[in-house]
Amino acid sequence: MAKRRCHIFVTVALLLFGIVAILLLTIPTDDLTEPPEFMYGIVLDAGSSHTAMYIYKWPADKQNGTGVVTQHTECHPKGGGISSYAGQQGEAGRSLKSCLDQATRDIPRARHHLTPVYLGATAGMRLLNISSPVQSAQVLKEVGHTIQSYPFNYQGAAILSGQEEGAYGWVTVNYLLENFIKYGFVGHWLSPGRQTVGALDFGGASTQITFVTKDEVEDKRDRMKLHLYGHDYSLYTHSFLCYGRDQVFKRLLAHLVTAQGHTGNMSHPCFPAGYSVIMKVGTLFDSPCTVAQTPSSGYNPQAALSVEGSGDYDLCLGNMTEIFSFHSCPFSQCSFDKVFQPNVSGSFMAFSAFFYIHQFLQTTTGILVATPAQLEEAARAVCNMSISEMLVLAPHQKPRLQDFCAASVFTKVLFTRGYGFDEISFPRISFQKKVSLLDVNIIYLSISFFYSRYQHNH
Ligand SMILES: *[C@@H]1O[C@H](CO)[C@@H](O)[C@H](O)[C@H]1NC(C)=O
Ligand SMILES: *[C@@H]1O[C@H](CO)[C@@H](O)[C@H](O)[C@H]1NC(C)=O
Ligand SMILES: *[C@@H]1O[C@H](CO)[C@@H](O)[C@H](O)[C@H]1NC(C)=O
Ligand SMILES: *[C@@H]1O[C@H](CO)[C@@H](O)[C@H](O)[C@H]1NC(C)=O
Ligand SMILES: *[C@@H]1O[C@H](CO)[C@@H](O)[C@H](O)[C@H]1NC(C)=O
Ligand SMILES: *[C@@H]1O[C@H](CO)[C@@H](O)[C@H](O)[C@H]1NC(C)=O
């Protein structure tokens, strides 16, 4: 039993960016001298395009081992993700200072040394660890040093695996939907025993799919068993590195450049008509996701490339499909890129960038997007809009307008051809604003370890 508990503890702690561990470590028992009001925890979510710092608080007088955790404050440092400071001595650590300084002000001084702090990095750092393990280790070491120079209780800085990130998203979504537990009005944690929902996440450098399945998971790397709140869950989870937003755009451009030649002018069917941009060819091949496509002859990374949008849905779809690989599958069935996937089952929640794409499609076209056919119709309409038409319909999205055709077509290929959502399963996807444990205002997070022990005993 002790071994099992330990296992539960480790899994959950890992999944929740160590938040649960934080709670376990710092929930006071009865040795507090003064009646404290709150305990605090700090999580630094180091994504590929930016880092966010969240401070949580929870009542310090818990005896039951359950508590309502709420977000206290948050902070978004200026600049890019920590991986973008690779090779710039001291910069990654320095980029966190403004937020850590804020934390020292937001958390009462008497609580500083009791406040655990943890940094979890995702796909941006996984990519850096591929292109330069030395730089990635350096960046992690540096942010670790910076965090340790503050008076908090340092718990570590680590890169989450794709599997951990996928499962983390799934646990988060289901916590927030109260599918595991519910804090009743009478002050008890209840187990609603509901069905869980699958999670579809779209980050800057990777995309994840995670759901409960009864089918056999033929590739054990994509299988995860969780024991949460007295229930066993058998998950399928896969994280596709290089299929995050920024990397998809880069790969698509690299693909077009390789196909059309890498000098002079280029036509981009996923950019809207009337949009053009000039860039250095070298910026397309600087990522582990595109480096293999670097032109072999006459390649000058400094050469300027002029890219002009043509807003053509069919050509965009054709090129987008080519950045996936749908042939050869070593298992009974695959999503793409030789990755096993059982049939999707149950309801899903698509969040982060998927929500914004879906919302943009619906509001600019007036089409309700609830089936694959409607997704195609709306994507076709968005790709056919010129940049000035888009600007009229969605002026506040100005800096991102050029990306919506590509992002919509990507979503279509990924969901329908890749994951295999069809007329029946697609309508069971709900698109929700970024549901992250790390950025909702109020979360009901029980201290799962204690709770599951209660359940066993009762
Ligand atoms: C647990 O919490 C409830 C509600 O806050 C309280 O009524 C009960 O006495 C607590 N139990 C223990 C063992 O402290
Ligand atoms: C970097 O990748 C290697 C090889 O996959 C892995 O062993 C190592 O743990 C990774 N580094 C970090 C800091 O996660
Ligand atoms: C590239 O496009 C610009 C503007 O669209 C045009 O002025 C220029 O002549 C073109 N260059 C080539 C090599 O086609
Ligand atoms: C990719 O885009 C280019 C430029 O618009 C076009 O010529 C080509 O036919 C497209 N490829 C596919 C497979 O649609
Ligand atoms: C998966 O779906 C396909 C097509 O809908 C179906 O033929 C197949 O039997 C399903 N597999 C399982 C294990 O349910
Ligand atoms: C695309 O837009 C043009 C005018 O901008 C319009 O004539 C055409 O019908 C549109 N096509 C589709 C498929 O919406």
Automatic annotation (TrEMBL):
Its main location: membrane. The keyword Transmembrane helix applies. GO terms for cellular component: plasma membrane. Its cofactor is Ca(2+); Mg(2+). The active site is at 165 (proton acceptor). Keywords: ATP-binding, Calcium, Disulfide bond, Glycoprotein, Hydrolase, Magnesium, Membrane, Nucleotide-binding, Transmembrane, Transmembrane helix. GO terms for molecular function: ATP binding; GDP phosphatase activity; ribonucleoside triphosphate phosphatase activity; UDP phosphatase activity. It is found in: Membrane. It is a multi-pass membrane protein. One of its GO terms (biological process) is nucleoside diphosphate catabolic process. ATP binds at residues 204-208. Belongs to the GDA1/CD39 NTPase family. This is Ectonucleoside triphosphate diphosphohydrolase 2.
